[in-house]
Design a protein that fits this description.
The complex is a heterodimer.
Chain A: E1 4-7, E2 10-14, E3 19-25, E4 33-38, E5 45-50, E6 56-59, E7 62-67, E8 72-77, E9 86-92, E10 102-103, E11 107-112
Parallel strand pairs in A: 2-11
Antiparallel strand pairs in A: 1-3, 3-8, 4-5, 4-9, 6-7, 7-8, 9-10, 9-11
Chain B: E1 5-7, E2 10-13, E3 19-24, E4 31-38, E5 42-50, E6 53-57, E7 64-68, E8 74-78, E9 87-94, E10 102-103, E11 107-111
Parallel strand pairs in B: 2-11
Antiparallel strand pairs in B: 1-3, 3-8, 4-5, 4-9, 5-6, 7-8, 9-10, 9-11
The chains are: A mainly beta, B mainly beta.
């Protein structure tokens, strides 16, 4: 059973554009929602995370939007750059991250110069 | 550099064999997690240890086992290997409480 559904599977954006990746979860016990960035040959690296007591969190060009009632959250990358080309994973866990993360299937982002 | 070290980086072995993957967590991190990443299954949680004790199990096969030693390093043992076990195996570590997970760069296992 896939508990975190991620879309799209792949995304091509022009330099300077906005990249948007969406995730939906099923388990209402989830209370910690991080996004990870993975470059080829590397492990996933934490990008930004949110807890359900806020609807939006921004760190630099990266913003998480969270909709608790719809059980959805999304990652927005503003002013996308070629260096942002990577695979992005959303994830969720219980007990504010003390439990293991359940990952989405990943989105391969390509930012064209 | 996340501070999590995984060895070896690559491993090629035959079906039916047994291998051991090793992970050294970040200094001070007590929790170790193992994940499997394959093309069709994405990142799947296998097992978690906290300060030497098994904390949680995910989609780990009975042919697979793990342990965390007193020095906090962890090993993932894969036995009776099948072609379908070919994947990237990641180790992650975290400190106590609600600290984020930090991943190593993985071990790529190829079963031929």
């Amino acid at each position: 059973q896939q508990q975190v559904k991620q879309s799209p599977q792949s995304l091509i954006v022009q330099k300077g554009g906005i990249s948007i990746i969406n995730c939906a979860y099923e388990n209402t016990a989830f209370d910690y929602f991080p996004w990870y960035q993975q470059f080829p040959g590397k492990g996933p690296a934490l990008l930004i995370a949110i807890r359900p007591d806020v609807s939006e969190k921004k760190e630099g060009r990266f913003t998480i939007s969270f909709n608790k009632s719809a059980k959805q959250f999304s990652l927005h990358i503003m002013d996308s750059q070629p260096g942002d080309s990577a695979t992005y994973f959303c994830a969720a866990s219980r007990d504010t991250g003390r439990r293991a993360l359940t990952f989405g299937s990943g989105t391969r982002l390509q930012v064209q110069p | 550099d996340s501070g999590v070290t995984q060895t070896p980086k690559h491993l090629i072995t035959a079906t039916g064999q047994r291998v051991t993957l090793r992970c050294s967590p970040r200094s001070g991190d007590l929790s170790v997690y193992w994940y499997q990443q394959s093309l069709d299954q994405g990142l799947q949680f296998l097992i978690q240890y906290y300060n030497g004790e098994e904390r949680a199990k995910g989609n780990i096969l009975e042919r697979f086992s793990a342990q965390q030693f007193p020095d906090l390093h962890s090993e993932l043992n894969l036995s009776s290997l099948e072609l379908g076990d070919s994947a990237l195996y990641f180790c992650a570590s975290s400190a106590q409480g609600n600290s984020p997970l930090h991943f190593g760069n993985g071990t790529r296992l190829t079963v031929t």
